[in-house]
Amino acid sequence: MPIIRIEMWPGRTHAQKAELARVITEAMVTIAHTTPEATIVVFQDVAKENWAQGGVLASDAKK
Predict the structure, then answer these.
(1) pTM for this entry
(2) pLDDT higher than 90, residue 60
């Protein structure tokens, strides 16, 4: 049973997450030869103050 974890900043809508879950599941079924029922997608929203890139917190990064 594949478990796919998606970490991203908050702000995606329910509809966006539903579409992501659908297409990611379809890709896993097609490529990894699993079933939709066995495929789990977990979304975790990570606040920008808990995410750093290049040693800089995303909440402090200049836009």
Answers:
(1) 0.84
(2) yes
